[in-house]
Task: inverse folding
């Protein structure tokens, strides 16, 4: 059960600081070792060069990212505390009760950093080579319609729920504690299928233990150019993946936000970084605060409709 900790407390108006005047904390809302953490540690030194200030990554995980988000929401809006968050931004408001801060009111977008397509995979022994094959098997054998995810409300959960909903198939969700556990369950045969990250799927695809059936993004993944999207296989308009972006406390002055956004874009678009991002399945997508605000609004509307439509709860 999630502990309902007060995550937002009002603060007195702070003195403003330009990036470069004081050290900057990059609060990463998830534990070490995941895509969010790895991206944060890759961009921090490059942002430091652009801003002329120390940028220190700091993991504050818990409650699907809400602990880190709440900490930043209560920080001074002076440009010295940043939040690196992912898709929980557009999911947590509809899943977590008792939050003492508001994602929209108390945090301001800086820039989307990268998107993370998901791969729909199935055990090799399951015999499905394409998404239509998989759906035909599930319609013929409804008891096989079990899928794993990294947890309730995660994109690996929501993407499969959305796909099965559109296919008219009732699925059974089996949540795991993380990507490694989800893959282990798949290989054991607990579940025959599920969406997962490119980084986790790649080694198993190479040795033939699983098969990739589709990519969840609107366009094909550069790392898997021959793998069709879900949309190409009969589900027009389907596009769902994870994303990573920067936010600051609401009230941070626009010129400060603009400078942080520029430094982040420079960092994520460094040519030397692209091979590492590709290994993680991340696609750079830094376009600044205005585009990120539009992106977040659309994401929240889509996720709210899906979560409420499927009746998804933290105990489901």
Result:
């Amino acid at each position: 059960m999630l502990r309902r900790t007060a995550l937002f407390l009002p603060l007195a108006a702070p003195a403003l600081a330009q990036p470069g005047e004081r050290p900057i904390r990059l609060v990463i809302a998830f534990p070490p070792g995941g895509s969010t953490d790895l991206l944060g540690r890759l961009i921090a030194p490059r942002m430091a060069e652009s801003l002329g200030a120390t940028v220190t990554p700091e993991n504050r995980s818990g409650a699907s990212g809400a602990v880190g988000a709440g900490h930043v929401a209560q920080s001074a809006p002076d440009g010295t505390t940043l939040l690196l968050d992912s898709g929980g931004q557009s999911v947590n408001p509809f899943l977590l009760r008792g939050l003492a801060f508001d994602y929209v009111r108390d945090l301001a977008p800086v820039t989307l950093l990268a998107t993370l397509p998901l791969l729909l995979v199935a055990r090799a022994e399951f015999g499905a080579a394409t998404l239509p094959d998989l759906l035909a098997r599930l319609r013929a054998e409804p008891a096989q319609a079990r899928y794993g995810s990294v947890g309730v409300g995660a994109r690996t959960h929501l993407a499969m729920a959305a796909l099965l909903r559109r296919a008219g198939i009732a699925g059974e969700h089996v949540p795991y504690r993380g990507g490694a556990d989800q893959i282990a369950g798949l290989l054991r045969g607990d579940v025959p299928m599920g969406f997962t990250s490119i980084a986790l799927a790649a080694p198993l695809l190479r040795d033939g233990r699983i098969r990739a059936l589709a990519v969840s993004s609107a366009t094909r993944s550069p790392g898997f150019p021959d793998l069709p999207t879900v949309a190409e296989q009969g589900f027009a308009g389907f596009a769902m993946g994870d994303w990573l972006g920067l936010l600051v406390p609401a009230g941070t002055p626009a010129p400060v936000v603009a400078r942080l956004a520029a430094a982040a874009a420079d960092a994520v678009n460094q040519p030397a970084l692209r091979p590492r991002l590709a290994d993680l399945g991340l696609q750079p997508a830094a376009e600044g605060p205005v585009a990120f605000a539009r992106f977040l609004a659309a994401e929240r509307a889509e996720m709210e409709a899906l979560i409420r439509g499927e009746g998804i709860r933290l105990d489901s």
Q: What stands out?
A: The longest strand covers residues 107-116. The radius of gyration is 20 Å. Residues 1-17 have pLDDT under 50 and may be disordered. DSSP finds eleven helices and eleven strands in the chain.
